Amino acid sequence: MKIGDLEKQSGISAHTLRYYEKSGLLKPSKRGDNNYRHYSNEDLITAKFIKRSKACGFSLAETSSLLAIKTDKSQHVCAEAKAITHNKLQEIEEQIQRLEQMKETLSKLHHYCCGGQESAEFCSIISALEEGE
Amino acid sequence: MKIGDLEKQSGISAHTLRYYEKSGLLKPSKRGDNNYRHYSNEDLITAKFIKRSKACGFSLAETSSLLAIKTDKSQHVCAEAKAITHNKLQEIEEQIQRLEQMKETLSKLHHYCCGGQESAEFCSIISALEEGE
DNA sequence: ATAAACCTTAGAGTATGGTTTAAGGTCAAG
DNA sequence: CTTGACCTTAAACCATACTCTAAGGTTTAT
Ligand SMILES: [Zn+2]
Ligand SMILES: [Zn+2]
Ligand SMILES: [Zn+2]
Ligand SMILES: [Zn+2]
């Protein structure tokens, strides 16, 4: 499979696949005489693995760690995978909390502003930002 | 007030204040003979405005738009401020949804993995990433 | 007088996850 | 045999929001 084929099969652009290679995430199993990248079926699985990992919110670095486990399962233990997942879960929960806090503040601002065509002289959004604690 | 004083009063680092100036967010009202920046009380209010705006999740560009309204209220209308707030609110709600989706997926992965010291051969986290739809 | 603390600038570096460009080599169809 | 599709590389660029560095000028306290 050439890079263009993998692009179609995996939904990851050729550009990005080359970038992933440079980042050590996915090396093609072979290079042809013309130096073209050749990907195996296992490489396709890896590409999809990366895609799912990203969909879970894992960074490329974290994905890299997960891939290391996947690639050599017998040399790794469940605890490692669970720790990575646990950390990400916490991180995401913290992000959600921050965003919920913002959402609440913004909802109030949004609610109290009339949103009309009148001068912003007494706009509650602007005053809240000027004078909030 | 010199930049160090504003740093203390506003809680925004001098570095960042200079960066904000370069970005057009907060220009000191004067420069001394020695070219030092001199900030007024109004500048302090503006600095705090920026800080609150950031705390609401507004980007520097959005903060800049809000500042333009604040600075010249009579030339702006509520509708403008409300539109900016509305967009941000939507954006944040979308982010929360994405994160909630990730959280759900991760929670399942986390729940099913034993997390023990046994080989990752049959780790549910790794297999889910390998074989998920 | 001299040292510490503060100020100035332009520009480079950091982090993330790519995207784009330039300049060119290879392959398959008509 | 040429045209267009596809492949190669290194390196620059994008966005965001800083953060730091280098090299130097100023103020203040002792
Ligand atoms: Zn109004
Ligand atoms: Zn309003
Ligand atoms: Zn297990
Ligand atoms: Zn496991």
UniProtKB/TrEMBL annotation, chains A, B:
Alphabetical keyword list: Coiled coil, DNA-binding, Transcription, Transcription regulation
Xref: Pfam families: MerR_1
One Gene Ontology term of the molecular function aspect: DNA binding
InterPro entries: DNA-bd_dom_put_sf, MerR-type_HTH_dom, MerR_fam
Species whose genome carries this gene: Marinomonas transparens
Coiled-coil spans in chain: 82-109
Protein name per UniProt: Zn(2+)-responsive transcriptional regulator
HTH merR-type domain: residues covered: 1-69
Record keyword Heme present: no
Domain of life according to the entry: Bacteria
